[in-house]
Amino acid sequence: YSTYTIVSAVYNVEKYLDDFFTSIINQSIGFEKSIQLIMVDDGSSDNSVNIIKRYQKLYPNNITYIHKENGGQASARNLGLKYVKTPWVTFTDPDDFLDKDFFKNIDIEISKNNNLAMVSSNIIFYHEKDNFYKDNHPLNYKYKNKKSIKIKDLDKNIQLSAASAIIKIELIKEFKFDEDLKPCFEDAKFINEYLLDNLEKDAIFIENARYFYRKRVD
Question: What DSSP element (H or E) covers 141?
Answer without folding.
Answer: none
